Structures are given as structure tokens and as C-alpha cells.
Amino acid sequence: MPTATGSSRPPRSAVVIGAGMVGLATAWSLRNHGVEVTVVERRHPAAGASWGNAGWLSPALTLPLPEPAALRYGLRSLVSPESPVYIPPRPDPRLARFLLTFTRNCTPRRWRVLAATFATLSRHALDAYDALAADGVAEPTRPAEPCLIAFRTAAERAAMVAELEHARAAGFTIAYERMDGDRARALEPALGDGIGAAMELHGQRYLNPGNFVRALADALRKRGGEILERTEVSGIRDLGPAGVAVTTSGGQLRADVAVVATGAWLDPLVRPFGVRVPVQAGRGYSFSVPAEGAPTRPTYLAAQKVVCTPLGEGRVRVAGMMELAPADRPVDPRRIQAIIAAARPLLRSIDWDARTDTWVGARPCTPDGLPLIGPTGSPRVYVNGGHGMWGVALGPLSGRLLADAIATGASPAELAPLHPLR
Fold first, then answer.
1. Using an 8 Å Cβ cutoff, are 49 and 263 in contact?
2. What is the rounded CA–CA span in Å between residue 221 and residue 140?
3. How far, in Å, CA of 233 to CA of 315, rounded?
């Protein structure tokens, strides 16, 4: 079978565009195949969604974003800045088309199909992290034993239990236990009296995402990979058997293949190569609070869609919200206040006024919720992106799968439903 160069010769060189978790994991795996790799990044490693996210490695919760419950929010809630899911009102035909297709995927039947795909990926997600650790990436992942999912009422918990049981039916391996509010507070004293029900979720992990991505970048450099920071990419040309030419602000780069891993900025670079699945920025917000009085373990306020993650160094990250808005739009302070307003009644002693590291990042969402991983209309131009909220959870695995496909010419079966030209 021909490889990415269009011949029996495997590629000897690659340009990877984007130095987030997904791009760097792809570059790392290509180096493991002996490919010379240059990573091009418009800012610096871990500058985007790979820095400020919640840092959960939670295969049990890596579920499709299009879900039947999404249709119950209603238009009024979607245009409220206090809503967990917010669409700033504006005339945007592209967003309207995205939402129409997204809505068509929010059916129980379609969700089951999508969930089965995620179940296949999730089985190997933590193994991919273990492989990175064994291969020399120094930053650890930490067991979250247990993750705590907290609710105001047992009725709120019942909705999550139903979702997890549907996920089990789709092939997920999920271990959880129910508990009442008193037991939850004994396990996590930061929880307030407003918590009336909870769940322990077992077998998950977490990490400091910024530290991990920087450690991956350092390890790639030590292995001979090059990272060009503060370098913009404006286009890619397919040169046929001669490979590709990548036009950057620092000059032209030549290689056998190119991989586009630019997150929410995928569309302009890959559309010329036939990729028509749109990628919409689903912006998430986060900030850090002092660890004193904050949860000591990964804790999820499920109905409020607020996540707390201990990062070490005396800080706990508080993250949440989904905002469908342009990727480069500035922080909306109302969204930070909405997170605080949602979490304050349920967390006993957090010093909200001492928050730091206020951040907004653009998570790359597709209308069917599935990543775009594989070749484009050019056999020398590849995509790895569109992971939505799961770029950190699935990045090392998708990087390994794509690198295997590029280097060997044989695409792993897991990539079939993720084809960028679907």
C-alpha cells in the first residue's frame, strides 16, 4: 500500500502546524517512526486550549458533545450570558449552518453511534499517556481516586446516571458509586450544604495541562524535533512527488508531508484540500483560586458544568462554560462571574476574590462531535483536530494513530469514522 509520499517510500520529513497537545503528540509519534519533524507554532507550546482546560483524563466522561439533552436548553438560555452554554447574538450564517447540523446529530440514535466511536478511542486513551511516560515525557499524570461528581439533588444525579448507563451500553467501561451529601462532604470538605447527592467515579486521572504540554515539547526537542515559535503559517502547497511547501512568516518550509493541528483555526488551511466539515470555536473559561478551602480532588458540579482540578503549587483550577463565539474574541467578564455564581452556593470556603490566571480558550468543535483525523484530498496533507473538549484526553492517542497511518500507509481501524473528508 502506498505511504503518504504517494510511493512505497515512507515519508522522511514532516511539518506539523500547531504546538498544542494534539500537534506535539503527533510530532512525537512521527519522530518515533524516524521522521524528521518541524513543528510550527504561531505563539508558543501550550498557548491555546491545551493550557487553560480542566486537565481531566476521564475516559468515562469522554462523550459526544451532540446529545439529546442539548435540545432542551432552548433558545432563551443559549443567548443568556449566565447560561452554561452561550451563543452571543450576532448575524453569522456559518454558525447558523453549524448549529443546524449539530442539532441533527442530537438524537438518541445518532448519539449511540457517536458514543460507540468514542468508546473505542477511550479504551486506549490512558495507555497512550503511559507510553509517553515510558518514553521519557517527565510530567506525570495523577490518579483521581475517586473523581467526585456533585449534585444539589438526587434528581439531578439521576440524569447523570442515565447518561453513564447509556455510555456503558455503547461500550464504555465505567465504575461509579452513588452517595448522599453527608458522605460526599466527608470525602470532600470543600463541598457546601447545598450538595444533596454525589457520585464517586473510579479509574480516571488528571494532570496540569500546561506543564504536561511544555514537558512534551521539551522531550520532542531532546529527541531531535524542531519547534519554530511565533511563526505564522499562511498556506500549504502540494508539490506532488516532491512533497509539500508550507508558507510561513519566517519563509518557506519543505517536507514530504504536512499535518495541520491548529485547533479552532483549522478551516482556512485545510479547506483547499477538500475538508468541508466545519470547525467552530467552543470557548471555555477558567481561572485559578488558592488551594485552601477549595476541593482537594477533581470535582465536577455537573448541573452547573463547573470543574475543579488541583494543579499543585497551591492552586486549584476552576473551569467551565461553552461559548460559541469567534476564537480570538477577548474574555467576557460576565462568563467568569457566571461560573462563580453557579459554584459559590455549592463550595464552602473558596476565596473567589483571590482568583488569578483568568483565561478563555477556543476548543475546536465539529457538528457531529467527532475529531478530524486522517488524510485530506491530498495524500501529503493531513489533519489532526476537531476534538472539542477532548483534545487533552485523546491527543496522545490520536497523535499515535495518525503517525502510524502516515508512516506505514495503513490506517488504523479506529480512524475510519474520523476521516476528514466524511
1. yes
2. 18
3. 35
Closest by CA position to 204, among listed 142, 139, 294: 142
CATH number of 13-49+211-277+369-418: 3.50.50.60
Give the mean pLDDT of the chain: 94
Q: Phi, psi (5° rounding) for residue 228?
A: -100, 110
> Which among 324, 416, 305 is positioned nearest to 370, based on CA atoms?
416
pLDDT at 18: 98
Cα separation, 114 vs 230, in Å, equals 36
Give the amino acid at 201.
Answer: L
- CATH 3.30.9.10 occupies which residues in the chain? 57-205+279-365
Closest CA to 393 of 34, 218, 31, 144: 144
pLDDT grade, residue 1 (50/70/90)? very low
Q: Alpha-carbon torsion 322, 323, 328, 333, what sign?
A: negative
> Could you give the CA distance from residue 107 to residue 69 in angstroms, rounded to a whole number?
9
Contact between residue 372 and residue 386 where contact means Cβ atoms under 8 Å apart: yes
Q: How far is 242 from 222, CA to CA, in rounded Å?
A: 28
Hey, is 300 helix, strand or coil?
Answer: strand
CA 74 and chain centroid, separation: 25
CATH number of 57-205+279-365: 3.30.9.10
